[in-house]
Amino acid sequence: MTAPADLEAVELANTAFYETMERGDFDELSDLWLDGDSDVEISCIHPGWPVLTGRGEVLRSYALIMANTEYIQFFLTDVKVALAGDIALVTCTENILSGGPAEESGELGPLVGQLVVATNVFRRTRDGWKLWSHHGSPVLAESDESDEGTDSED
């Protein structure tokens, strides 16, 4: 039986991951991932990127994203948590609003919205739940029920 305290702790760890990215706190983000002393390598797949493996590669990718993103906000929906012993799986939809600096003025440029479905795998450690793997895939098309059942002459 899954303890409610474990579910809550995993949900808090997942929320901390996204809130830390919103704040651009690289040191805190680094602390959320399994450390290099772990018996397994961490991995990350950002939308459109190849698989990144190992603490150095994964954390460099977040440093790059943070350095090139002026503003980012995540609205998580469809969050589901599954636990199996010391492993937790979180799936969710990341409704992302982001923007970079405008080309000339240096002010915040236009905001862009994006939908990403994500899987975050956590592992219980003596220091709490730590990220083992993150996989984000873009939602390329929304289902449009009004097009179902219509014939096309193309």
From TrEMBL:
Domain of life, per lineage: Bacteria
Positions of the SnoaL-like domain: 10-139
SUPFAM superfamilies: NTF2-like
Name the UniProt record assigns to this protein: Nuclear transport factor 2 family protein
Taxonomic lineage of the native organism: Bacteria, Bacillati, Actinomycetota, Actinomycetes, Kitasatosporales
